Amino acid sequence: FQPVTPVVLLIFNPMLKKRDDFEDMLEERRNSSDLRYALKCYTPVLYKGLTPCKVSELKQMVLQSDQLGYVITQVSKEKGVTSDEVTGEAAAILEEMAQRLQLSTVRFFAFTLSKVFKTLFRSICINEEGLQRLQQAIHNHPVVLLPSHRSYMDFLLMSYILYTYDLALPVIAAGMDFMGMKVVGEMLRMSGAFFIRRSFGGDKLYWAVFSEYVKIMLKNGYAPVEFFLEGTRSRTAKSLTPKLGLLNIVMDPFLKGEVFDISLVPVSISYERTLEEALYARELLGVPKPKESTSGLFKARKILSEDYGSIHVYFGQPVSVRSLAESRVNRSQFNLIPRHIPTRPSEEILSFVNDSAYRLVRAQEENMVLKPWVLLAFVLLQKQAAEEKQGTALDELTEQAVWLRDLSRQYGAFLHWPDHIPPSEVVSSSLSLHRGLVRISEGRVQLALEQGLLYPGFVILSCASYRNQALNVFIRPALLASAIHTAASNRKQEIYNSFSFLRNMFSNEFILCPGATVQDFEEACYLLVKTGTLQINQQEVLITERGHRTLAFLTSVLDPFLQGYQVVCRFLCEQDGLTEKQFIPAVRKFIIKHLLTGRLRYTEVLSSDLQKNALAALIRLGAVQKIKGNNYCFNVFPSEARNRGL
C-alpha cells in the first residue's frame, strides 16, 4: 500500500461536503389554522406537466400490457386453464394491490397529522433546498423516493411533507400487514399506498402484475414511487442490507430504453426519540411483534402524552440512473430479446443494481442527523460494560460527550449539537428527554437497570439503538483500530489483512460496499492520521502518544459485536445439529446462562438481530453449513471456525 495521496485525502474529507440548512415546518402550523391548511389549494408540479390518468385507466393499462399478456399465456398453458381465467386472477391480484389515491383522504390525513405532530414533536426540520431539487427532478424525469426506515411514522411523514410543500404525492409500497387494519388500511390505500406480499415465491403471475403496475406508474409519470430500500423497519437503528427486487423493477424502464432517465432520491429521516423504542427492544429480546390492527392503533394513543423531541428530514441529491449506468451497463443486450418477454437479470445487471443500492443506503446514512443523546448513549453503554456501578458524574459525562462530539465532527458526522448553549445544559436536556432509560442520583448518571435480566436487556438494547445511529460514522476507523489491536505486528500489510477479515465478517452487520475494502482501509487511515491518532509510512502503522484514547474508544465500538459473534460460534460448536427454527431460542438460552454467570460483558448479545447476523456470517465464511431439508439444518465445523479466527 502506498501512503494516502492528496487526491484520496480530498475524496475522504467529509468536512468538505456542504449540507443544506433546516427549517422547522411545524412553526407555521402552530400559528395558523389546521383546517385552512388541510383545505388549501393544492397544485403540485407534475412530470413534464402531464395530467395524471385515473386509477381505473391505470389498471387497464396494466392488464392490457404486452408483458402481462405474455405471462398470462404462459401460465394458462402451464395450468391447463383458459387465458380468460388467468386474466381474471390477474385482475383480482391488481384489485387487492392497487392504490386509490384521493385528495379528500389526503386532506383528512393532513388535518389529523398536523394535530398529532404538534403534540408529539417539538419540531420537524426539513432542508428546503432538497425539496426544490426534488421539485425540479419530478418535472424532468420519473422519480423514485427512497426514505430510510426506522418507524411506522416514515411514510405518513413523507406524504405530509410533500403535501405541505405542494409537491406531487407519492404512491407507496406497503406490506400486506396493513390491510388487516380494516378502516385504516383502506384509508392508507386512498392516501397512495399499494399493498404487496412479503414474498412471492415462484408466483410468476403475481410478479408480472406487480412489476408492470410499478413500471407503468413510473413511466407515465403518474406519481413519484416510494419504497424502503431496506425492505422493513430497522429494529436496531442500523441500516439494513438493501433489498434489490423493487430497485431492479424501477431501473428496468431506463435499462430497456423506455425512459431517458430516472431520478433516485435518498431521504434520511432522523428521530431524536423513536416512537417504537420499547417495542423494538422487546422484539429483539424475543417478544413476538404485535399484529397491525386498528384496535392496536387506538391503544397506542397514550404516546400522545409523551415528548419525542425533534425530527430531521433531509432530502438528498437526486441520483441519475443514467449516470450510475454510464460505463457500467451495456444496454444493447436488451435489444436482443423482445421487451415484453420477462428475463432474469444478467450478472452484470445484478452487480450494477447491488452496487447502486449500497451507494444509496450510504447516502441515506451520511445525511442522518445525530442528536447529543446518541453520543451520551455511547458513553453510558461503555461505562455499563465496564461495570461502573456508581454511575458517572454529570461533569465527567459532559466532558466525555464533548470529546466525542469533537471527534465525530472531525469524522464528518452530521451532528445537531446547539453550540450556543452550554454543554452541561445540552446534556441535561438530552437526559431529561430520555429519562425512561437513565437514572440520575446525587449528580451521578447511569442506565436505569432494575433487578432481573430481561429488563436490563430491554434498557440496554433501547440505548444501543440510539448509539447505533452513529456507527456509520465510526465503523471504518473502528475496524482499523480493532485490526491494529489484533494484528501481531505494526506492519501495514498485516494490519490490512486483519482489517479485511473483520470487514468481511461484519458485512452482514454494517453497510460496507462490496469490493471497496481498499477504499475503506484508506478512508480509515486518512481519518486516524488527520486526527493525530496514527502515523503511517510505507511499511508501518504507528500509534501516536495522544492517539491511545481515540483507539481505545474505537476498539470498544466493535467489542459488543465481536463478543456476540464469538458466543454464537461457541454455542454452535457445542451443537450436534440444529434447525433454523430452533436456533434463536436455543442461542438466547445459552447466552442468558453465560450472562448470569458473568462470563459475558455485553448484555447486547441478547439481540436476535446480532445473533442472526452472526449466523449468516459463519455460513458465508464456511464455518457453518446450511443443509436444506424439511427444515434447514446447520452443521458446524469447529476447526474451520478456528481457522477463520472465530
From TrEMBL:
<comment type="similarity">
    <text>Belongs to the GPAT/DAPAT family.</text>
</comment>
<dbReference type="InterPro" id="IPR045520">
    <property type="entry name" value="GPAT/DHAPAT_C"/>
</dbReference>
<dbReference type="InterPro" id="IPR022284">
    <property type="entry name" value="GPAT/DHAPAT"/>
</dbReference>
<dbReference type="GO" id="GO:0005778">
    <property type="term" value="C:peroxisomal membrane"/>
</dbReference>
<dbReference type="InterPro" id="IPR041728">
    <property type="entry name" value="GPAT/DHAPAT_LPLAT"/>
</dbReference>
<dbReference type="GO" id="GO:0008654">
    <property type="term" value="P:phospholipid biosynthetic process"/>
</dbReference>
<keyword id="KW-0472">Membrane</keyword>
<dbReference type="GO" id="GO:0031966">
    <property type="term" value="C:mitochondrial membrane"/>
</dbReference>
<dbReference type="GO" id="GO:0008611">
    <property type="term" value="P:ether lipid biosynthetic process"/>
</dbReference>
<protein>
    <submittedName>
        <fullName>Glyceronephosphate O-acyltransferase</fullName>
    </submittedName>
</protein>
<dbReference type="Pfam" id="PF19277">
    <property type="entry name" value="GPAT_C"/>
</dbReference>
<feature type="domain" description="Phospholipid/glycerol acyltransferase">
    <location>
        <begin position="143"/>
        <end position="272"/>
    </location>
</feature>
<keyword id="KW-0012">Acyltransferase</keyword>
<dbReference type="GO" id="GO:0004366">
    <property type="term" value="F:glycerol-3-phosphate O-acyltransferase activity"/>
</dbReference>
<comment type="pathway">
    <text>Phospholipid metabolism.</text>
</comment>
<keyword id="KW-0808">Transferase</keyword>
<dbReference type="GO" id="GO:0019432">
    <property type="term" value="P:triglyceride biosynthetic process"/>
</dbReference>
<dbReference type="Pfam" id="PF01553">
    <property type="entry name" value="Acyltransferase"/>
</dbReference>
<dbReference type="GO" id="GO:0006631">
    <property type="term" value="P:fatty acid metabolic process"/>
</dbReference>
<dbReference type="InterPro" id="IPR002123">
    <property type="entry name" value="Plipid/glycerol_acylTrfase"/>
</dbReference>
<dbReference type="GO" id="GO:0016287">
    <property type="term" value="F:glycerone-phosphate O-acyltransferase activity"/>
</dbReference>
